[in-house]
Please model this.
Amino acid sequence: MKEISGNAARIALDGLSRSHAQAATASQRIVAGPIEAEDIVSLKTAEHAFKANAAVLAATKRMEERLLDILA
Model:
């Protein structure tokens, strides 16, 4: 079970990193102007991806805590 949750956490952390990079790039392009719809969509997509990856991390933590409760 540890391998599965470890992989999930690793994948989620990688996703958080990619989402952050995507948001930073879109933000820089918006600041530099002119504002393009594609940049706003990219920023919003990065926001949703970040939230989804954060939810995976939270679920992984709850799963590990529950497993410890079961084994205790």
